[in-house]
Amino acid sequence: TEVEAVNMEEITGAQIIAEALKAQNVEYMFGIVGVPVIEVAMAVQGVGIKYVGMRNEQAACYAASAVGYLTGRPAVCLVVSGPGLIHALGGMANANMNCWPVVVIGGSSDQNQETMGAFQEFPQVEACRLYSKFSARPSSLEAIPSVIEKAVRSSIYGRPGACYVDVSGDMVTARVDRARVRAAPCCPPPPVSLAHPKAVTEAVAMLKTSKQPLVIVGKGAAYSRAEDEVQELVELCGLPFLPTPMGKGVLPDDHPQCVAAARSRALLQADVVVLLGARLNWILHFGLPPRFNPQVKVIQVDICAEELGNNVKPAVALLGDIRNVVSQLLGCFRKDAWRYQSDTMWWRSLKEKMNANERMSKALAAHSSVPMNYYTVFHHIAELLPHDCIIVSEGANTMDIGRTMLYNRLPRHRLDAGTFGTMGVGLGFAIAAALVESGRKTCQRVVCVEGDSAFGFSGMEVETMCRYKLPVIIIVVNNNGIYSGVDPHTWDELGKMGDLTTIAPPVTLLPEARYDQVMAAFGGQGFFVRTPQELRSALQLCLDDWERPSLLNVLIDPASDRKQQVGNFYQSNSG
């Protein structure tokens, strides 16, 4: 009727998507627009969601997943169909392996052209099932809000991960009466679960009988915001602790009970290990000999039932939210106090090894020769960085050595290659961290420490940083290659010998490449650094500048390597 026509308000698919995301408290969207998703990006801006245009879908997905880890609520990665989505699969896989929440929305070919060879036609929903917890296409415009609610909910409930929503091109621009759209309320924060009281009692009894206990703090503890509870447990009971790479900062790295500097000895000789949101995967050598005691007893705390018992059968399994389970343990120790004594042989052995390793690192850092080595570079960086800065790191030696020398003192202030060992994450992570920090009252610096090879994966994202005036400081530790390179003279000699594609070592990159000029080309600050004095001067200038991003291109000895370790037969990134 005419009255009904007057009262009918039509709404497009793009608007429905935007309003559904807003209803789920999504704050950020990263992506690269094109047919058929341009209208979606415009619509989300219209409802107050921040849209960040990136230069590659992989980096966009890395950024969106980092927001999920840092805030506990997923951001969205928006991509075009076919190749656009395929580029984002790396970010989805990385998010799933790291257990970080992210929602990817991909445009796809029109429904009436399916199987006809449409533009960028690809089986997107099916493809994403390998890389996500949930993958679906709404059956109608009316169903979009409920599918988006399920994607957001699935990304944060249980073990967090990636979720995918497919939207065909014709759905983006199609219209429907708003009254017919089924609104979905905002999904609440994930419900938290507690471990069985009997298992908690068993864990406490086992800890009290341990001779050489060790707490391993994983990024699951960081994600669950368990820092206060974990610190109280460690300090109340006098326990040595070891952070995993992204578990750094849950307790400060310079805490007197942190034994990271004696990592190998701590893992090998511990008789009881409390595993807080860390997995016994390659990063922890699977919990197996020769890196672990064959008789070690593991108290495993994890949110995911399927993770319990992977590689090593736990002596006690505590299924539940890390923060709440640690609170349960604390409740027992408060009622019946117990403290591991600080004068034991175990503590003396750990401190002896820590002091020896620290002396070795300091000796390497004291080298004043040019070109610099890794330890010299990180020594000077560590002296100048603010204690509250967020450190993003990727590379091989750059990430490994930097992890031991650049301290984190706050939780969720380190982002790196992670469980998947992914190269190329750095600039996307840094962009995400800078955006999240810009919305907080106590805005903290974001410093991205990259190997020169790692920088190359996503280097063009410096334009994104310049465009949005994000004051990220990128430090490229440049050794002219992957793992190691050659100096300019050697490179020239190789060129004289013939075709470089058959002569140049596969690990080599162009010597002394001017990555600093890439940043300067877009309006940021670029510094070419050879000496410790130049490094300190340039870094201080960057720390004083909150208006634009900066890049320090720090040349080091192409042959520089990590200090030798006894039994150094494990993978480079085995933090």
Automatic annotation (TrEMBL):
A cellular-component GO term for this protein: peroxisome
Domain Thiamine pyrophosphate enzyme TPP-binding: 395-554
Keywords for the protein's UniProt record, in alphabetical order: Fatty acid metabolism, Lipid metabolism, Lyase, Magnesium, Metal-binding, Peroxisome, Phosphoprotein, Thiamine pyrophosphate
Reported cofactor(s): thiamine diphosphate; Mg(2+)
Gene3D superfamilies to which the protein is assigned, alphabetical: 3.40.50.970, TPP-binding domain
Top enzyme category: lyase
Biological processes per GO annotation: fatty acid alpha-oxidation
Domain called Thiamine pyrophosphate enzyme central: residue spans: 200-329
Domain Thiamine pyrophosphate enzyme N-terminal TPP-binding: 12-125
Superkingdom: Eukaryota
Pathway: Lipid metabolism; fatty acid metabolism
Subcellular compartments: Peroxisome
Gene Ontology molecular function terms on file: 2-hydroxyacyl-CoA lyase activity; magnesium ion binding; thiamine pyrophosphate binding
Family (UniProt): Belongs to the TPP enzyme family.
Binding partners and assembly: Homotetramer.
Protein name: 2-hydroxyacyl-CoA lyase 1
Natural source organism: Scleropages formosus (Asian bonytongue)
Name of the gene this protein is made from: HACL1
